């Protein structure tokens, strides 16, 4: 994978983490155990420290960066959706950041809080634990239910399982030229899309 040292600081990746070869890590980046870092994620620790704590995931096309001297942190079991941008902020334990959301300088996302897809969290905003924020700029919408937090935890668990699957079976290959008869599908028990969860 593209890992780069700058000013004598090089990224640190726990052996039990999985970082895709097409992710880019620069400088003061710390990736903890059981983390998953997807293709095209950029973790740029050339100004401030970038930290993914144990069991967190950073999905495709995400950016983590910060201003000089500031840490950008995703705490344990944090879940960062595709295309999100985190800049000099802190995402609390077991929190979820939706796809294409932007979290700005010194914002803090509380434990088990949700940031809706495409939300813009202003600099310095403090999102309360177990609450949903949405909008541009983001505003607190409501408190989350236990069922919603359990749904999020199931989603994070499958990413933690994906870390193990990637470490054991992901490898470059030559594609087939035609689909084989009876091609099997990947199967996951008990996992619901957001739409299915809302209907349940």
Automatic annotation (TrEMBL):
Gene3D superfamilies: Hexapeptide repeat proteins. The lineage of its organism: Bacteria, Pseudomonadati, Pseudomonadota, Betaproteobacteria, Rhodocyclales. InterPro entries: Hexapep, PaaY, Transf_Hexapept/Carb_Anhydrase, Trimer_LpxA-like_sf. This is Phenylacetic acid degradation protein PaaY. The gene is paaY. CDD domains: LbH_paaY_like. Transmembrane segments: none annotated. It comes from Nitrogeniibacter mangrovi. It comes from the Bacteria.
């Amino acid at each position: 994978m593209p890992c780069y040292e700058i000013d004598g600081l090089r990224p640190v990746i726990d052996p039990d983490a999985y970082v895709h070869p097409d992710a880019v890590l620069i400088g003061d980046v710390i990736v903890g155990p059981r983390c998953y870092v997807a293709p095209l994620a950029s973790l740029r620790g050339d100004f401030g420290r970038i930290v993914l704590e144990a069991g967190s995931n950073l999905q495709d096309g995400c950016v983590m960066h910060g201003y000089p001297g500031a840490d950008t942190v995703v705490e344990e079991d944090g879940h960062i959706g595709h295309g999100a941008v985190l800049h000099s902020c802190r995402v609390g334990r077991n929190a979820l950041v939706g796809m294409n959301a932007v979290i700005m300088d010194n914002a803090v996302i509380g434990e088990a809080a949700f940031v809706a897809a495409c939300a813009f969290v202003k600099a310095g905003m403090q999102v309360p634990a177990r609450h949903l924020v949405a909008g541009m700029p983001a505003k607190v919408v409501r408190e989350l239910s236990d069922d919603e937090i359990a749904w999020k935890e199931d989603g994070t668990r499958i990413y933690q399982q994906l870390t193990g699957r990637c470490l054991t079976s992901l490898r470059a290959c030559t594609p087939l030229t035609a689909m084989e008869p009876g091609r099997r599908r990947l199967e996951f028990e008990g996992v619901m899309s957001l739409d299915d969860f809302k209907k349940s």
